[in-house]
Amino acid sequence: MEAAFWHERWEKGEIGFHQHEFNRYMQDFMDRLEIARGARILVPLCGKSRDMLWLVSRGFRVTGIEISERAVQDFYVENGMDYELEQQEKAVVYSSGDIQIFCADFFKVEKSGLPRIDAVYDRASLVALPPRMRTAYARHFNGLIDPDIRSLLVTLDYPQEEMRGPPFSVTPAEVGQLFGAWFDIGHLHSEDCLAAEPRFRKKGLTRMEEHVYILQKNSLPESA
């Protein structure tokens, strides 16, 4: 979606996508990233996700990217964290302890402006984007990380015609199409989640599954 859409959603408090509990799949599969304590995990389109707190509690450092200033400020205020600001050319960087968030357009953040990234966690980023933006997202995502870096990706799969996104449906086949040129893709888990999502049943959905993947960036040239 365009930047104005997300700014409006945050200002109106229309953030049904925000989870108050730590994501179960993150907890179950984080070890598949095979990173040591102190590693830095990138969380694209992070919002004010509390998952960042869990990651830090397990000894990791976190770099988030989020376009909404309201979301970034809410994260630090709601969690009682003081923060420092650094103005960069294309971002304002909020920092507190082991959590830093780049308040910026994801597509304008460059690898050279980020600290070294050791892994990526994407629970709500890819599924937030309509089909026309996902190819550009995958390409830019690839450009931000080094070869052999692993990413934990969580997606939703449902009949798109039954509900307007976001969150959008991203099928396993599309994951392969989007990332297959740059990443080795491992499908870790799938689960029928509709029974646990009454708000989506009310919208008329007849099927919804969550899928969890591990993506490992290969060493193919960037032009592949």
Ends: how far apart? 26 Å
What is the CATH-assigned architecture? 3-Layer(aba) Sandwich
Strand order of the largest sheet: 3-4-5-2-1-6-7-9-8
Spatial shape: globular
What does this structure look like?
- The chain is of the alpha/beta class and 224 residues long.
- It has one domain: 3-Layer(aba) Sandwich (Rossmann fold), CATH 3.40.50.
- Helices cover 26% and strands 25% of the residues.
- The protein is built from 7 helices and 9 strands.
- Strands 3-4-5-2-1-6-7-9-8 form a 9-stranded mixed beta sheet, sandwiched between helices.
- The longest helix is centred in the middle third of the chain and has 13 residues, at 131-143.
- The relative contact order is 0.15.
- The mean pLDDT is 91.
